[in-house]
Amino acid sequence: MRNIVLLILGAINLLANIPYIVNTYRGKTKPDIATWSTWALLNAVAAVAAIQSGAYNTVMLAVSYLAGSFTVLLLAFRKGKWNYSLLDGVCQVLALVGVAFWLAARNPTIAIVFVVLVDVLAAIPSLRHARVHPREETWITYYVAGVVSLGLVACADSYSLASLAYPIDNVVINLLLTWLIVSGRRRRRIASGSRQVKLRGVQ
Protein backbone atom coordinates (compact mmCIF):
# COMPACT_ATOMS: atom_id res chain seq x y z
CA MET A 1 0.00 0.00 0.00
CA ARG A 2 2.80 2.41 0.93
CA ASN A 3 4.51 1.80 -2.41
CA ILE A 4 1.30 2.60 -4.29
CA VAL A 5 0.89 5.85 -2.34
CA LEU A 6 4.48 6.82 -3.14
CA LEU A 7 3.86 6.15 -6.84
CA ILE A 8 0.72 8.30 -6.74
CA LEU A 9 2.58 11.12 -4.96
CA GLY A 10 5.32 10.94 -7.59
CA ALA A 11 2.78 11.18 -10.40
CA ILE A 12 1.03 14.14 -8.74
CA ASN A 13 4.36 15.91 -8.25
CA LEU A 14 5.27 15.33 -11.89
CA LEU A 15 1.95 16.79 -13.10
CA ALA A 16 2.30 19.76 -10.73
CA ASN A 17 5.34 20.92 -12.70
CA ILE A 18 3.25 21.44 -15.86
CA PRO A 19 1.82 24.88 -14.89
CA TYR A 20 5.29 26.12 -13.95
CA ILE A 21 6.80 24.82 -17.19
CA VAL A 22 3.98 26.28 -19.33
CA ASN A 23 4.19 29.67 -17.61
CA THR A 24 7.97 29.71 -17.99
CA TYR A 25 7.65 28.93 -21.69
CA ARG A 26 5.14 31.76 -22.07
CA GLY A 27 7.42 34.17 -20.24
CA LYS A 28 5.05 34.71 -17.31
CA THR A 29 7.22 32.84 -14.82
CA LYS A 30 10.93 33.65 -14.57
CA PRO A 31 12.70 30.91 -12.60
CA ASP A 32 15.84 31.78 -10.70
CA ILE A 33 18.70 29.91 -12.39
CA ALA A 34 20.80 29.69 -9.22
CA THR A 35 17.98 27.86 -7.45
CA TRP A 36 16.89 25.55 -10.25
CA SER A 37 20.39 24.51 -11.34
CA THR A 38 21.20 23.46 -7.78
CA TRP A 39 17.85 21.69 -7.39
CA ALA A 40 18.43 19.85 -10.67
CA LEU A 41 21.85 18.67 -9.46
CA LEU A 42 20.45 17.65 -6.07
CA ASN A 43 17.59 15.72 -7.67
CA ALA A 44 19.89 14.04 -10.20
CA VAL A 45 22.16 12.72 -7.46
CA ALA A 46 19.14 11.62 -5.41
CA ALA A 47 17.60 9.80 -8.39
CA VAL A 48 20.83 7.96 -9.17
CA ALA A 49 21.25 7.06 -5.49
CA ALA A 50 17.68 5.70 -5.32
CA ILE A 51 18.23 3.54 -8.41
CA GLN A 52 21.63 2.25 -7.28
CA SER A 53 20.36 1.41 -3.79
CA GLY A 54 17.44 -0.53 -5.22
CA ALA A 55 14.90 1.74 -3.49
CA TYR A 56 12.51 1.38 -6.38
CA ASN A 57 9.53 2.45 -4.30
CA THR A 58 11.03 5.98 -4.16
CA VAL A 59 12.42 6.07 -7.71
CA MET A 60 9.19 7.51 -9.12
CA LEU A 61 9.38 10.39 -6.67
CA ALA A 62 13.07 11.00 -7.35
CA VAL A 63 12.55 10.89 -11.11
CA SER A 64 9.53 13.23 -10.90
CA TYR A 65 11.59 15.79 -8.98
CA LEU A 66 14.46 15.41 -11.47
CA ALA A 67 12.25 15.67 -14.57
CA GLY A 68 10.52 18.78 -13.26
CA SER A 69 13.63 20.63 -12.11
CA PHE A 70 15.66 19.72 -15.21
CA THR A 71 12.90 20.84 -17.60
CA VAL A 72 12.49 24.14 -15.74
CA LEU A 73 16.27 24.62 -15.76
CA LEU A 74 16.45 24.13 -19.54
CA LEU A 75 13.71 26.71 -20.03
CA ALA A 76 15.32 29.02 -17.47
CA PHE A 77 18.44 29.35 -19.60
CA ARG A 78 16.24 31.01 -22.21
CA LYS A 79 13.40 32.53 -20.20
CA GLY A 80 14.68 32.74 -16.63
CA LYS A 81 16.25 35.36 -14.37
CA TRP A 82 19.84 35.96 -15.49
CA ASN A 83 20.74 38.95 -13.30
CA TYR A 84 23.05 36.86 -11.13
CA SER A 85 23.57 38.65 -7.80
CA LEU A 86 26.18 38.19 -5.10
CA LEU A 87 23.55 36.39 -2.99
CA ASP A 88 22.87 33.97 -5.88
CA GLY A 89 26.58 33.23 -6.25
CA VAL A 90 27.25 32.77 -2.54
CA CYS A 91 24.22 30.49 -2.08
CA GLN A 92 25.12 28.38 -5.09
CA VAL A 93 28.78 27.96 -4.13
CA LEU A 94 27.85 26.98 -0.58
CA ALA A 95 25.21 24.60 -1.95
CA LEU A 96 27.76 22.91 -4.21
CA VAL A 97 30.11 22.54 -1.25
CA GLY A 98 27.20 20.98 0.63
CA VAL A 99 26.63 18.51 -2.22
CA ALA A 100 30.29 17.47 -2.02
CA PHE A 101 30.01 16.87 1.74
CA TRP A 102 26.74 14.98 1.21
CA LEU A 103 28.39 12.62 -1.27
CA ALA A 104 31.38 12.14 1.04
CA ALA A 105 29.32 11.51 4.20
CA ARG A 106 29.03 7.85 5.21
CA ASN A 107 26.62 8.39 8.06
CA PRO A 108 23.02 8.64 6.70
CA THR A 109 22.00 11.19 9.32
CA ILE A 110 24.94 13.47 8.54
CA ALA A 111 24.26 13.05 4.83
CA ILE A 112 20.62 14.14 5.19
CA VAL A 113 21.70 17.22 7.17
CA PHE A 114 23.82 18.28 4.18
CA VAL A 115 20.91 17.55 1.80
CA VAL A 116 18.66 19.87 3.81
CA LEU A 117 21.40 22.50 3.96
CA VAL A 118 21.85 22.37 0.18
CA ASP A 119 18.08 22.59 -0.38
CA VAL A 120 17.73 25.63 1.90
CA LEU A 121 20.70 27.43 0.32
CA ALA A 122 19.32 26.69 -3.16
CA ALA A 123 15.90 28.05 -2.19
CA ILE A 124 17.10 31.41 -0.82
CA PRO A 125 17.37 33.17 -4.24
CA SER A 126 13.87 31.96 -5.20
CA LEU A 127 12.45 33.00 -1.82
CA ARG A 128 13.80 36.49 -2.44
CA HIS A 129 12.49 36.46 -6.01
CA ALA A 130 9.02 35.35 -4.84
CA ARG A 131 8.95 38.20 -2.30
CA VAL A 132 10.15 40.90 -4.70
CA HIS A 133 8.50 39.68 -7.93
CA PRO A 134 5.54 37.46 -6.94
CA ARG A 135 3.95 37.77 -10.38
CA GLU A 136 6.99 36.06 -11.90
CA GLU A 137 6.39 32.80 -10.01
CA THR A 138 3.74 30.04 -10.23
CA TRP A 139 2.36 29.33 -6.77
CA ILE A 140 0.35 26.18 -7.57
CA THR A 141 3.47 24.13 -8.35
CA TYR A 142 5.03 24.95 -4.99
CA TYR A 143 1.75 24.38 -3.17
CA VAL A 144 1.27 20.89 -4.63
CA ALA A 145 4.93 20.07 -3.94
CA GLY A 146 4.36 21.05 -0.31
CA VAL A 147 1.27 18.84 -0.06
CA VAL A 148 3.16 15.95 -1.68
CA SER A 149 5.93 16.41 0.89
CA LEU A 150 3.34 16.24 3.67
CA GLY A 151 2.29 12.93 2.15
CA LEU A 152 5.90 11.78 2.32
CA VAL A 153 6.03 12.66 6.01
CA ALA A 154 2.88 10.56 6.57
CA CYS A 155 4.40 7.67 4.60
CA ALA A 156 7.77 7.72 6.38
CA ASP A 157 8.96 4.23 7.28
CA SER A 158 10.37 5.53 10.57
CA TYR A 159 10.22 8.71 12.64
CA SER A 160 13.92 9.43 12.51
CA LEU A 161 15.87 12.49 11.45
CA ALA A 162 17.08 10.69 8.33
CA SER A 163 13.52 9.84 7.27
CA LEU A 164 11.75 13.09 8.14
CA ALA A 165 14.24 15.95 7.78
CA TYR A 166 14.16 16.29 3.99
CA PRO A 167 10.36 15.93 3.53
CA ILE A 168 9.72 18.44 6.33
CA ASP A 169 12.27 20.79 4.78
CA ASN A 170 10.37 20.50 1.48
CA VAL A 171 7.05 21.23 3.19
CA VAL A 172 8.41 24.40 4.81
CA ILE A 173 10.19 25.74 1.71
CA ASN A 174 7.37 25.03 -0.74
CA LEU A 175 4.59 26.38 1.47
CA LEU A 176 6.69 29.43 2.34
CA LEU A 177 7.19 30.09 -1.38
CA THR A 178 3.45 29.67 -1.91
CA TRP A 179 2.65 32.15 0.86
CA LEU A 180 5.17 34.72 -0.42
CA ILE A 181 3.73 34.55 -3.94
CA VAL A 182 0.06 34.62 -2.99
CA SER A 183 0.39 37.31 -0.29
CA GLY A 184 2.70 39.38 -2.50
CA ARG A 185 0.21 39.36 -5.37
CA ARG A 186 -2.61 40.27 -2.99
CA ARG A 187 -0.66 43.25 -1.60
CA ARG A 188 0.03 44.49 -5.11
CA ARG A 189 -3.63 44.19 -6.11
CA ILE A 190 -4.66 46.18 -3.05
CA ALA A 191 -1.98 48.80 -3.70
CA SER A 192 -3.00 49.05 -7.37
CA GLY A 193 -6.66 49.46 -6.40
CA SER A 194 -5.78 52.20 -3.92
CA ARG A 195 -3.80 54.10 -6.55
CA GLN A 196 -6.71 53.88 -9.01
CA VAL A 197 -9.12 55.24 -6.36
CA LYS A 198 -6.78 58.16 -5.63
CA LEU A 199 -6.45 58.94 -9.35
CA ARG A 200 -10.23 59.00 -9.74
CA GLY A 201 -10.44 61.33 -6.75
CA VAL A 202 -7.92 63.73 -8.32
CA GLN A 203 -9.80 63.73 -11.62
3D architecture notes:
This protein is mainly α and 203 residues long. It has one domain (2-202). The protein contains seven helices and no strands. It starts with a helix and ends with a helix.
Number of domains as seen in the coordinates: 1
How far is it from the N-terminal to the C-terminal residue, by CA?
66 Å
Number of helices: 7
Form type? globular
Structural class: mainly alpha
The count of β-strands is 0
- Indicate the percent of residues in helices: over 70%
Unreliable residue stretches = none
| Rg of Cα set | 18 Å
Element order: H for helix, E for strand: HHHHHHH
User: What integer is the average pLDDT?
Assistant: 83
The largest sheet is: none
Beta-strand residue percentage: under 5%
Brief synopsis:
The chain has 7 helices and no strands. By secondary structure, the protein is mostly helical.
List the helices and strands and how they pair.
Layout: H1 2-26, H2 33-53, H3 56-79, H4 86-104, H5 108-132, H6 139-154, H7 161-202
Helix pairs in contact: 1-3, 1-6, 2-3, 2-4, 2-5, 4-5, 5-7, 6-7
Key terms:
203 residues; 85% helix; 7 helices; mainly alpha
